[in-house]
Design brief:
Layout (H helix, E strand, L loop, with lengths): L4 H11 L3 E5 L3 H14 L3 E5 L1 H4 L5 H13 L5 E8 L2 H10 L3 E4 L6 H16 L4 E6 L5 H4 L4 H8 L5 H11 L3 E4 L16 H11 L3 E3 L7 H9 L2 E6 L1 H17 L6 H23 L2 H4 L6
Parallel strand pairs: 1-2, 1-8, 2-3, 3-4, 4-5, 5-6, 6-7, 7-8
Helix pairs in contact: 2-4, 2-13, 4-5, 9-10, 12-13
Bound molecules: 1,3-dihydroxyacetonephosphate.
Length: 295
């Protein structure tokens, strides 16, 4: 069943867990996310980042499929627009039946980010949809390869300022805040060092759930610490895709006979699903309850 972003984050808050927000780029990815969530009987966020992934499947094709499959799911699902940076995409997602949107104005000057986010909130309100927005910069790909201490200082200067975050939430009335505290999107080229205390302060000053972007490459232990400080939505994609790619490379290297694309797709789907099962267990504390650990 489809639920709003706010509803799913309220569930997370009540249980002191985070909801996995998994990007999808094609049909098998949608299957993998929903099957993993249903197998564990956990809520999940199915999200599409048109700006990054529209080249693989256009949003007007994949969006209605996401909505239709989420409607039929046996667990609560939020269908979310990730990194919406223009009102055309936001309007399109709302029309398609998405139940959450992110407006990403983090690259804009503060006042412009506030003004645009307010427009997004007004638009979304008409559809009963909740809004995530971002302040601070998540550290773009170029930061992932940063090496020296001067670069570290540059990265930290982009971290979310808790007082500015509090003002931003008050001025925009958003439902969730994407913050920068040391994660970056994509592959980490050196071990991430997160400012976990910053999450606690931001959560306290803003009063809204904190969203972690760039979940790939973060250890289970660090995930748990972040969740304990108020992270309620964790965006995760790159490693799920990388693990599936590694598996297919192995499969192609060991297969002597004919290789059919549908077999590759099914193997990839299963790999995505297993990664999401392990990840959801950590985010929902199920691995602790079962006494297990994530491989
Ligand atoms: P990763 O792909 O680094 O896991 O991050 C996903 C994300 O933050 C999407 O917004």
């Amino acid at each position: 069943m489809i639920v709003s972003l706010k509803t799913i984050l309220d569930i997370a808050e009540a249980r002191n867990i985070a909801i996995g927000a998994f990007n999808v780029t094609f049909l098998d990815g949608i299957y993998a996310v929903l099957q993993a969530a249903e197998e564990l009987n956990q809520p999940v966020i199915l999200q599409f980042a048109n700006a990054a992934h529209g080249i693989y499947t256009p949003m007007d094709v994949i969006g209605p499929v996401m909505v239709s499959m989420a409607e039929r799911a046996k667990v609560p699902v939020c269908v979310h627009l990730d990194h919406g940076d223009n009102f055309q995409d936001i309007q399109a997602a709302l029309e398609m039946g998405f139940s959450g949107i992110m407006y990403d104005g983090s690259a804009l000057p503060y006042e412009q980010n506030v003004a645009n986010t307010r427009v997004a909130v007004e638009l979304a309100k008409r559809y009963g949809v909740s809004v995530e927005a971002e302040i601070g910069s998540m550290g773009r790909e170029e930061f992932a390869s940063a090496g020296g201490s001067s670069q570290d200082a540059e990265i930290e200067s982009c971290y979310t300022d808790p007082d500015q975050a509090a003002r931003f939430v008050k001025d925009t009335q958003i439902d969730a805040l994407a913050c920068s505290f040391g994660t970056v999107h994509g592959i980490y080229l050196k071990a991430p060092k997160l400012d976990i205390e910053r999450i606690r302060v931001i959560r306290e000053k803003t009063g809204v759930p904190v969203v972690m972007h760039g979940g790939s490459g973060i250890s289970d232990e660090v995930f748990r610490k972040c969740i304990n400080q108020g992270v309620r939505k964790i965006n995760f994609y790159t490693y799920a895709s990388k693990y599936a790619g590694d598996l297919i490379r192995y499969y192609l290297g060991t297969e002597d006979g004919n290789v059919y694309f549908h077999d590759i797709a099914v193997r990839g789907r299963e790999s995505f699903k297993q990664t999401y099962i392990k990840t959801i267990k950590v985010f929902s504390n199920l691995d602790r309850l079962a006494g297990g650990s994530r491989a």
